[in-house]
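User: Sequence recovery, please. Input:
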């Protein structure tokens, strides 16, 4: 199985796998930053057999000084995953409403928790529907799983480590928010505008399409233009660690499986008023 096939699964392949006697566990992670909850979408229609997992309450900890989407408590995450039927060593496929953000954070969280066999449905629920695959409104009652959460499966950064990475000549900290937010011209969510000093801006739209699909053939060159190719270490952050989790997935697709996530991201950085804030033109290396 190729590296891409270990990370992403296309509709046709997933449909075939779901016909097997022991299919992958399906997790529906649809979510919106603003608007109706993702559970409403799930109840209106989902992949047959899929179980809904809430990004805010199941996959992340409570918001606070650690950020808007901090790491979950391992025991609480284990309970949520077991309730969703996640079994130790058994394949999981996650999907969302199509932009790939929540599904990527779900992918990252399971990998961080030590569960390696997890893939993202490329294109999400819209791709499934567009392929005229069946949907269901039945909420399954899965047999409880036995997954064991072992944190540390993927590298994380705290604020101090993010600052060190951004300041190092041989490392890159990517800020994947939109350029106006990075430059400090606007901040629609957090109380302070700007970016971590030394971070390099690479807006998410430059490495993933609006449909959540990754242009795998050009990912290496796009990350190379941001300095990743020559970097000893690379990390990523966004507003609260959701879009940046998608960046980590994209970096894995580009061969940088060592990429670290600053989970707290900007919402954690600005929680401490003593931390420096930079603004101005987009950086490059």
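Assistant: Recovered sequence (285 residues):
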């Amino acid at each position: 199985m190729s590296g891409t096939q270990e990370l992403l699964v296309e509709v046709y392949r997933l449909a075939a796998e779901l016909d097997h006697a022991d299919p992958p566990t399906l997790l529906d992670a649809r979510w919106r930053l603003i608007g109706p909850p993702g559970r409403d979408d799930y109840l209106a229609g989902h992949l047959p057999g899929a179980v809904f997992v809430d990004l805010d309450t199941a996959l992340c900890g409570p918001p606070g000084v650690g950020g808007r989407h901090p790491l979950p408590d391992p025991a609480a995450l284990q309970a949520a995953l077991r309730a969703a039927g996640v079994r130790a060593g058994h394949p999981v496929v996650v999907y969302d409403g199509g932009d790939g953000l929540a599904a990527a954070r779900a992918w990252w969280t399971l990998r961080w928790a030590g569960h390696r066999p997890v893939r993202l449905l490329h294109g999400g629920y819209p791709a499934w529907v567009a392929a005229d695959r069946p949907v269901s409104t039945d909420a399954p009652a899965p047999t409880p799983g036995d997954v064991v959460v072992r944190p540390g499966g993927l590298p994380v950064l705290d604020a101090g480590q993010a600052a060190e990475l951004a300041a190092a000549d041989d490392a890159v900290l990517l800020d994947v928010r939109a350029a106006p937010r990075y430059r400090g011209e606007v901040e629609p969510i957090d109380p302070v505008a700007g970016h971590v000093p030394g971070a390099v801006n690479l807006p998410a739209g430059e490495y993933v399409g609006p449909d959540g699909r990754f242009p795998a053939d050009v990912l290496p060159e796009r990350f190379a233009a941001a300095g990743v190719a020559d970097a000893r270490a690379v990390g990523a952050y966004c507003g609260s660690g959701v879009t940046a989790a998608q960046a980590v997935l994209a970096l894995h697709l580009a061969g940088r499986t060592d990429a670290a996530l600053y989970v707290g991201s900007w919402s954690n950085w600005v929680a401490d008023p003593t931390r420096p804030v930079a603004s101005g033109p987009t950086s490059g290396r």
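Strands lie at 8-9, 25-28, 51-52, 92-95, 118-121, 156-157, 171-175, 200-201, 233-237, 260-262.
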